[in-house]
UniProtKB/TrEMBL annotation:
PROSITE patterns: MFS. It catalyses: 4-methyl-2-oxopentanoate(out) + H(+)(out) = 4-methyl-2-oxopentanoate(in) + H(+)(in); 3-methyl-2-oxobutanoate(out) + H(+)(out) = 3-methyl-2-oxobutanoate(in) + H(+)(in). Residues 19-427 form the Major facilitator superfamily (MFS) profile domain. GO terms for cellular component: basolateral plasma membrane. NCBIfam families: 2A0113. It is found in: Basolateral cell membrane. Keywords: Cell membrane, Membrane, Symport, Transmembrane, Transmembrane helix, Transport. InterPro entries: MCT (IPR004743), MFS (IPR011701), MFS_dom (IPR020846), MFS_trans_sf (IPR036259), Proton-linked_MCT (IPR050327). Belongs to the major facilitator superfamily. Monocarboxylate porter (TC 2.A.1.13) family. GO terms for molecular function: monocarboxylic acid transmembrane transporter activity; symporter activity. It is a multi-pass membrane protein. The lineage of its organism: Eukaryota, Metazoa, Chordata, Craniata, Vertebrata. This is Major facilitator superfamily (MFS) profile domain-containing protein. It comes from the Eukaryota.
Length: 492
């Protein structure tokens, strides 16, 4: 396709215009990124029977996929920094499509781990990080709303993919379903084509080619230095010196550990309670349908003048609400109560994921966000990798799903309370540090003024001495002139 002319902008993001088309493309790519690992759980029962594996073994598929999606953050950020979001999203869509098509021919669980988990997970990582990065470049004042609309892709796609996967499984089996799903995921390439890059109007001067040829060693050294700078930028360990970043990271790790296991096992839990398979699949659709409206609504609320300065506390509340839903889930005894759980689960899950990256942007700013999100995602891949298999192991050991909901709920609630308390401490310390800096600044200003006044007085004193010396010289010259006259008269 012919290259699209880029939009020439100043330093201020446009906050609209073609940015809304970028949000639409991000809606599609993020929708596939977050909904695919959840919707794949529809096939787990059939794959488990076909390949003769346990609950813990089958849970590793979504777990590895999610972990690879998060672990690929620094690689995706580096590629976005080098090539832009458009080609990275298109490459990610191609990888996702190829992963599903090749997985449909698998005959072992290890093969599915590699195809769906590793290849598909890295493809989803390219979709996710590139989409989030370009939104942060297109929006500033309306950024929470744009993030909410883009992140709403996850529930929208989950709402349709869950029953669609159930239909495809009944019609074509899990192998044919993966083949069709791979073709659908190629639409991420179309979404990536919408992501027109934002280029600032900057004047750059390039050295003549002749000089580069004359100094090849310096040119190679400069290239190596640039590579080292890029590596340090996207694995920047100085973020751990930022107190707010460390607090956010700890709370986020606790949430990620317990976030996905209830989704992966929700359909199986409903079937174990005597619910029909299609009705069990619709629980994910109900959750996704509620989540669809909660995310942009949360973005609007977070963008208000009352919540925007306190968005970190809003995020803490969302986590506690989400975890409480899981703690109450084992009390459900009928399909109607499971529907109520799915509704509240969709509300809590939607609030958290509408705010999860907005809070990081709020802490780090637009310039540091790409580096920060890369570091966060690669760290979060470990709880992402261990969460669903740990929950599946509880099911294998106790033969009951309620313990996984207790575990996930307790971890998430603890993380939310930790964020709430530590954010109070962080803002208190920031206030004290700001007051100390203001006091120091005032003292420096006073010292500077005293130095200036002392310098002025010294200059005045010096000028007075100079004037007195000049007058003394003038009087001395007059005296010498008089002496010469007297001497002449005496000789006469």
């Amino acid at each position: 396709m012919s290259p699209t002319p880029v939009q020439q902008l100043g330093n201020k993001p446009p906050d609209g215009g073609w940015g809304w088309m970028v949000v639409f493309g991000a809606h599609i790519s993020i929708g596939f990124a977050y909904s695919t690992p959840k919707a794949l759980s529809i096939f787990f029962k059939e794959i488990q029977k076909d390949l003769l594996v346990s609950y813990s073994d089958i849970a590793w598929i979504s777990s590895i996929m999610l972990a690879a999606m998060y672990a690929g953050g620094p690689v995706s950020s580096a590629l976005v920094n080098r090539f832009g979001s458009r080609p990275v999203v298109m490459l990610g869509g191609l990888m996702c499509g190829v992963s599903m098509v090749t997985a449909s021919f698998g005959d072992s669980i290890i093969y599915l781990y590699f195809c769906i988990g590793v290849i598909g997970g890295f493809g989803l990582s390219f979709n996710l990080n590139a989409s989030l990065t370009i939104i942060s470049k297109y929006f500033l004042a309306r950024r929470p709303l744009a993030n909410g609309l883009a992140m709403a892709g996850s529930p929208v796609f989950l709402c349709f993919l869950a029953p669609l996967n159930q239909y495809l499984q009944d019609k074509y089996g899990w192998r044919g379903s993966l083949l069709i799903l791979g073709a659908l995921m190629l639409n991420c390439c179309v979404a990536g084509a919408l992501m027109r890059p934002v280029r600032m109007t900057l004047k750059q001067s390039y050295p003549p080619q002749k000089k580069l040829e004359e100094q090849p060693d310096k040119h190679i050294t400069r290239i190596k230095g640039t590579c080292m700078e890029n590596a340090k930028k996207f694995l920047d360990l100085t973020f751990f010196k930022d107190r707010g970043f460390v607090i956010y990271l700890i709370g986020n790790i606790m949430f990620i550990f317990g976030a996905y296991a209830p989704i992966v096992f929700l359909s199986a839990y409903a079937v174990s309670r005597g619910v029909e398979e299609y009705s069990a699949a619709y629980l994910l659709s109900i959750m996704g349908f509620v989540d669809m409206f909660v995310r942009p609504g949360t973005g609007l609320i977070a963008n208000s003048k009352w919540i925007r300065p306190r968005v970190q506390y809003f995020f803490s509340f969302a986590m506690v609400f989400n975890g409480t839903c899981h703690l109450l889930c084992p009390l459900t005894t009928s399909y109607a109560l499971l529907v109520v759980y799915a509704i509240f689960f969709g509300v809590g899950f939607g609030m958290v994921f509408a705010l999860i990256f907005e809070c990081l942007m709020d802490l780090m700013g637009n310039q540091r966000f790409p580096s920060a999100v890369g570091l966060v995602t690669i760290i979060e891949c470990f709880p992402m990798l261990l969460g669903p298999p740990a929950a599946g192991l509880l099911v294998d050991v106790y033969g009951d799903y309620k313990y996984l909901f207790f575990m996930c709920g307790a971890v998430i609630v603890t993380g939310g309370l930790f964020l709430f308390v530590m954010n109070i401490y962080n803002y208190h310390m920031l206030g004290k540090e700001k007051a100390a800096m203001d006091t120091e600044q005032k003292q420096n200003n006073i010292d500077n003024q005293e130095q200036k006044s002392n310098g002025i007085s010294e200059q005045i004193t010096l000028s007075m001495h100079v004037v007195a010396w000049v007058r003394f010289q003038e009087r001395l010259e007059k005296c010498e002139h008089c002496i010469k006259i007297i001497h002449i008269y005496s000789m006469i």
